[in-house]
Amino acid sequence: MRYTGVGCRVSGVGAVLLALCGSCAKSTTPDSRPPTPARVLRVCADPNNLPYSNEKQQGFENAIASLIARDLNARVAYTWWPQRRGFVRQTLRRGDCDVIMGIPSNFEQALPTQSYYRSTYVFVSRFDRHLGITSFDDPRLKKLKVGVQMIGNDHVNSPPAHALAKRGIIDNVAGYTVYGDYRSQAPGRDIVDAVATGAVDIAVVWGPQAGYFARQEKVSLEIVPVSPQIDLPFLPFVFDISMGVRRGDNALRDQLDQEIEKRRTDIERILDQYGVPRV
Amino acid sequence: MKVGAIFAIILVCAGCNQQTPGKKSFPFLQRYSANPSEKSDLVKLEGEDGQWIMPAKNYASTRFSGLNQIDAGNVKNLKVAWTFSTGSDRGEEAAPIVVNNTMYIVTPFPNTLYALDLTQPGAPAKWSYKPKDLNNSAKGVACCDWVNRGCVYANGKIFFNTLDGKTAAVNAQTGDEVWVAQVADINRGESITMAPLVVKNKVLVGDSGGEFGVRGSLTALDSETGKQVWKAYSTGPDKDCLIGPNFHPFYDSDKGQDLGVKTWPPDGWKIGGGTTWGWTSYDPALDLVYYGTGNPGPWNPEQRPGDNKWTCGMFARRPDTGEAVWAYQWSPHDLYDHDGINELVLLDLPINGQVRKVLVRPERNGYVYVLDRVTGQVLSANPFAFITTSTGVDLKTGRLKPVPEKAPGFGRVTRMICPPAPGAKDWEPSAYSPVTKLLYIPHANLCEDSEGVQANYIAGTPYVGSNVKMYAGPGGHRGEFDAWDPVAGKKIWSIKENFPVWSGAVATAGNVVFYGTMEGWFKAIDARSGQLLWQFKCGSGIIGQPVTFLGPDGKQYVSILSGVGGWAGAIVAGQLDPHDGTAALGFVNAMSDLPKATTKGGMLYTFALP
Q: CB–CB of B459 and A84 under 8 A?
């Protein structure tokens, strides 16, 4: 169950996704159906958080929003807000928008639609290293330089950060905040860059970011879903992702659910274009 | 004139060893000797009780005023003199300051600076200064509401910080911008909420944002140009922390080379936290500035074995160079988000029969520390709040004695963690009266449970964390206002408040102490007995800092900003869901009834006797 980025090698049994490469990832379709639709699909999104969204609407969440809006004979109106602590409160709950394109399906702060993809944290390493690490229990992780995404509130962190600490993998770990440098065109990319440049031997990264950024590196990177999928008793590495509406907005949720059903193939295509690993 | 007499006593100036005959003096205030290198007029101005030139009133951070027109006998007659709307609906944590018959207030983000003309009836605005080119993403980055803790006057200029990481100097007369300096980088998660302190023509600025992997630092800017003079990091190699040959910490565990690196896993210090968003004090005689450092973040405790220096501690530094003279950690290897940034009150107190130069610190971890401010030795540390997370401070080693069973951890259920993340006391500053010799401490009475797992999502990344819920500590009340004897190390009296007390305090020579509650009551308390003498219901909950001053008419006034918000009040200012107890990092669980008790909206109230 692994695939690679730039090199386009799909290897392993039951590769979860099709890595379309080359001309991928920059494909937003402008919403151009005349005349101007009467309805507005109000979306709150981060203005600078590829591969999900940015102000130029180059992210896969932008593409999926446009796709659904077309079906609803709506145009997309964005409220841009950094997806930090308080994002849902400052946007969706304040009524500035009606939908957030990506939330975990068990997220309590919003009403989720059905899941439209399920991704996983992945190990990212240079293909030319042939590490083939698939599990947090691989003893080599105690020696290699390991990059991991950090969140930063007390006792709250990315699942791999917890998993590594639990196994005593501490001294050889380099932390990369998920926020990155917001001036950059892709604030979350630095951890994948670190693998490409050799600053770390291997990194544990949330799938969509790993898949998308790996394709942009000059060297071929290998992306392998982590195992186990759940560190017992309850540390999951695989998450279902839904769209989120305000709690109580069941009508919009139902409509989006129908759209997700109807457009499943198109959504899969978009996710493939962006290299989003799914399980 | 009565006021003038007190005035002269308190006046802390070069060579003011002479005492006004027949009047009680406050010896602790006279420790300032003439410092020939002190070019600023601040040492003189901070002693003038007619004015209030910095949020802490003076460099010693006593928040004590020698004014006594308003006293315990007549305070019951206090009436509103005038009000001013800030136009903001965010938490108003700032202290208004008063210089040359002008009051200056900074609003929450977008951090407008207002100058109010005290010579005119109703104190209308003379001018306002709106910082330009604000980065709106600051609103998304700031951890706990969009607060600002105030501005400071020096050398004809008003200095204040903006949430998006800048320090501004504005002409105090005209409101014209003198300079703006970018100190913190909002793109890297750094923001600024603290009030700067000006020492020897240097503006000292600290940062916020420990939860974003910010590496904390204190920056000194030239007050005339805004150019950086020095920057001292809270983590990392000695050279970055400005630790050199003159660094002499008191305790062995603080001695050694590059401890800001060695007390972390390799490279952990690079995103190690230790931000400096609280209070700074200065002793002109010793020529030392004192300030605290925030918690180690964003690592889990399991990922950062070691003391994680110099987080959750404090530094004594030379203002000219930033060079560290000593350091101490309140909470080595912090587990609870107990940012060590609270106020440091500089006093000269008799300790075991000997007058010592001390600093008094009511600390988040629940102890009032008395430290020798020359050496950094802990002289005493006594609990002022209910504590389950530690059993005391070892005075031999200076180390906090933690209770391992109360260590929260991912996937572990830990109940009755007291004090919780905001601490027994957060940023809200206490006041010290040299008349009663008591420290007046506004604080919280809260505990928290950490249990289960909550799925969350940030910057496109799903994550998990403990479900934290705070609630009232023993007694069921959530706040207290205490009078504390720092020499005896014990509580003299305590007022219970329903909500956490999130406002600062002021003590006066009239033996009155002022503070506000989150319901909006502004209260005057008898400084000796703790008896409630007067109260007024302001429009919104109070989380600001009271000040007192003389108007151009020679009358004493008291001012307070009302406007609920901040971390504790985020449920109102940020319209959080009362049903989501884990919001605001679990604080909402303890505050779900606040929206019934108050509504938001910033308003300055000024009171006077008829």
A: yes
B451 is catalytic: no
Do the domain assignments include residue B163? yes
pLDDT digits (tens, 9 = 90+) for B311-330: 999 999 999 999 999 999 99
Q: Report the candidate in B288, B237, B290 with the shortest Cα–Cα distance to residue B267.
A: B237
Backbone φ and ψ of B91, nearest 5° = -60, 130
pTM of structure:
0.87
Residue pLDDT, tens place only, B24-42? 444 333 333 334 334 457 8
Q: Return the structure tokens found at B557.
A: 């006034």
Please report the pLDDT score of residue A153 as a whole number.
Answer: 63
- Please tell me the distance from the alpha carbon of residue B596 to that of residue B473, in angstroms, as a whole number: 21
Q: What is the CATH number of the domain that holds B217?
A: 2.40.128.630
The answer to whether B86 and B526 have CB atoms below 8 angstroms apart is no
Give Rg (Cα) of chain A. Answer: 19
Residue with tokens 């100036």: B13
Region A119-236: CATH code: 3.40.190.10
Longest dimension (CA), chain B: 70
Q: Which residues of A fall within a CB distance of 8 Å from B213?
A: 150, 152, 175, 177, 179
- Using alpha carbons only, what angle is made at residue B569 by residues B566 and B572, rounded to the nearest 5 degrees? 120
Phi then psi for residue A253, to 5 deg, are -60, -45
- What is the CA angle A123-A127-A130, rounded to 5? 85
**Residues A135, A138: Cα–Cα separation, whole Å:** 5
Q: What range does the domain containing B155 cover?
A: 97-232
A156 to chain B: which residues are within 8 Å by CB?
Answer: 456, 463-466
